[in-house]
Amino acid sequence: MDRLMSRKTETYDVVVAGAGAGGIAAAVGAARSGARTLLVERYGFMGGAATNSLVLAYCGFYARGQEQRQTVFGVGKALLEELAAIGADTAPIVSKSGYWVVMLDPEATKLGFDRLARKNNVEVRLHSRLIGANVSDGRIRSVDIVDHSGIVTVEAGAFVDASGEATLATLAGVPLSQPGGSPSAVQAASMPIRIGGVKDGTIFDRKLMAELIAEHNKTARLPILRADGGVLVTLPISGETWWMAIDLETDGVTSESLTNAEFEARELAWTNLEVLRRHPGFEKAYLASSGPQIGIRETRRPFSRADVTERDVVEGLRHADGIARGSWPMEVHEAPGRARFVEVGGEGFFDIRAGAIEAAEIENLRLAGRVIGADAKAYGSVRVMGTAFATGHAAGISAALEADGGLDVATLQARLKEQGALI
Fold first, then answer.
1. What SS3 state is found at 192?
2. Which residue ranges does UniProt annotate as crossing the membrane (predicted)?
C-alpha cells in the first residue's frame, strides 16, 4: 500500500467534518474568526441533505405565525443571499405543516455553497472521507481522511462534527444518547423526488389523490404510507414539482440497511408515479431526479454538555447562555408515513445553550447541525437545516476560540453578534 498510496500530515486551526448546512456555517464562522479552516465532505458537492437527498425545503429559518419572523441570520442569511444572486426565489412560503419554509433548487444550492466557501477563505476537500480520530487526554489531536490518492492526517486545535451521523464524535469516543444500529429505534427516512411534465396551472386535489392512493394500496406490495399524497410543492427556477411521499425504515449507518432502503425507495418512486399520473394534469409526469442518497433524519446522537430538552421546546425557554434560536416544532416521525408536530411554546422560539454544541468528554470537539446534544423529542426540532445554520455558526466560532486557547460564552455570543447572528 505504501508504494501505491501516499500518506502525509497537514495542520489547520479548525477542521469541520461534513459540508451541509451546519458544516458550511461552522467553517465560515471559524474562518471569519481568523482560524485557518478545513471543511471535509465525502460528496463532490456541498449542501448536505438539500443536495444529496433532495430535501429541498429549508425549515427553521422562520417562526410560525401570520407574519414572517426570521429567527436565523448570520451565515444562514449569507447563503440565502447567494441563492438569490444566482436567481433562486428565497421568499418563504407556508408549508403543509403551517410553518414558513424556503424552497430550494438543488443546483443553485450547490453553487451557493461553493461561492460562500470561497468568499470566506474556507479550504474545502470534496471527495474525502473521515476514517479515524486520534485522541489523547480528552482531546482530538488529529483526524485521518482518505481520498483516491491516499490518507491525510490532519492536526488541528479544534474540530467540528457536522457529519449528520456523528461520525467524528463516534470515532473520538463521545458517549451516545442514541447509538443507532436499529431501524425501528430512529425516525424513518424519506426519499423526495423531482417530477417534471406537469401541466401548467394544475391544482393538486388532495381528496382525489387520497382516493387514488386508497385504491392503489388495496393490492400494492409496497403501499403509499402518506394517505393524503404527502407533500407536493413547485420548485423555484425549474418549476418542477417536489414530491415527498416515500418513507422507509433504515438504520442509516450500515451499508446493508441503506442498500435495502435505496432499492425499495427507487421501486416506490416509479410505482407511486403511476398513481400520480391518474390525477388530472399529471398524465405526462415523469421522474426527473432522485437524490444521490435517501434522506436520513436520525442515526446516532452524541451527548453534549447541555442537551436541548423537550421542555426547552414546548415552553419556548430562554437561557442566559443561548447561542442560537430554534423555531421549528418537534417533528417526530414515529413510523414510516406517520408524523406528528408539537408546537414551540413561548414566543415561538427557544434558546439553544452553548453546552449543546460542546461534545461530552472531548474538550475540543464541537457539534453542529443534527448532531448537537438533544433528547429524543427535542431532536425532532433541532435537526432541521435552518436551525443547523444557526448551531453550525456557533460551533465554528466556538471551535476557533478553542483553537486560539480559550473559550467563554460571553465572547462566543459577542462574536456571533459581530457576524450578524441572532441570539
1. coil
2. 12-31
Contact 302, 176 (CB under 8 A): yes
Q: In degrees rounded to 5, what are phi and psi of residue 116?
A: -65, -40
In whole angstroms, give the CA distance from residue 376 to residue 357: 16
Cell numbers representing residue 62 in the block: 422562520
Binned at pLDDT 50, 70 and 90, residue 332 comes out as confident
Residues present in the chain in total: 423
Return the half-sphere exposure (C-beta side, CA atoms, 13 A cut-off) of residue 223: 15
CB distance 212 to 275 below 8 Å: yes
Residues 6+ apart with CB under 8 A from 414: none
Cα dihedral 43, 76, 401, 303, rounded to 10, equals -70
Backbone angles phi, psi at 43, to 5 degrees: -85, 175
What b-and-e string marks burial along 204-220, b requiring 16 or more CB atoms within 10 Å of the CB? beeeebeebbeebeeee
User: In this structure, what C-alpha cell is assigned to residue 140?
Assistant: 482530538
| DSSP codes of every residue in 348-394 | S-EEEEGGGGBBTT-TTEEE-GGGSSB-TTTHHHHTSHHHHHHHHHH
Structure confidence by residue, pLDDT tens digits, 390-408 = 999 999 999 999 999 877 9
One-character DSSP codes across 103-119: E--HHHHHHHHHHHHHH
For 372, list phi and psi in degrees, rounded to 5: -65, 160
Nearest to 293 by CA among 22, 50, 23, 24: 50
CA–CA separation, 101 and 70 (whole Å):
11
**Residue 133, beta-bridge partner list:** 143
pLDDT tens profile 154-183: 999 999 999 999 999 999 999 999 998 889
Q: Rounded to whole angstroms, how far apart are CA atoms 76 and 351?
A: 17
Other CB atoms closer than 10 Å to residue 171's CB: what's the count?
A: 20
Among 422, 423, 419, residue whose Cα is nearest residue 29: 419
